[in-house]
Each structure stands twice: as C-alpha cells, then as structure tokens.
Design goal:
Elements: E1 2-16, E2 24-32, E3 35-41, H1 43-48, E4 58-66, E5 71-79
Parallel strand pairs: 3-5
Antiparallel strand pairs: 1-2, 1-4, 2-3, 4-5
C-alpha cells in the first residue's frame, strides 16, 4: 500500500542486523505533527538523496506499507521549497 505525507526530516542511521550482522539496515527518523516515524529506507535513497537533505527540513515523503509483514519503508523523499 502506497502512502504519502509531509514530514520533518530528523536524520538517519545505519546499523548491522541482529540476526545477520553482515546485513546493514538504514533507519530514517521523521516527525509528522506530534508523532515520530522510524522506518527503513530504500538503498538508492541512502546513497543519493539522504546525505543532501538538511536536518529538520520539511519534506514530502512517499512510503510503502506492507501489512503482511507490518513494515514501513521510505521509498521517496524531497525537500519542500
């Protein structure tokens, strides 16, 4: 299921997986109103887009919600100008 929202970008961090330490997972922190959203990010966003976004900037975000596995993945993000 595709979702979109306007959020405040807080930052991101990469960490090794718990079951398989060779896998690296990148988690993105966003604010939507009073709620904090922490979600995984697509690999192309990690290298190309996220380093260019300044902390606490307002962004348009696109998400993919997988209801079967209960996961939220950030698939697109762009700063609002």
């Amino acid at each position: 299921m595709k979702l979109s929202s306007t959020c405040v970008f807080q930052g991101y961090e990469s960490r090794p997986g718990k079951k398989d330490p060779s896998k690296i997972y990148t988690e993105v922190a966003l604010l939507e109103g009073m709620d904090q959203i922490r979600c995984l990010a697509d690999a192309d966003l990690i290298d190309k887009v996220l380093p260019g976004i300044t902390q606490f900037s307002i962004c348009k975000c696109q998400f993919d919600l997988n209801v079967r596995y209960n996961t939220l993945t950030l698939t697109g993000i762009s700063p609002v100008k």
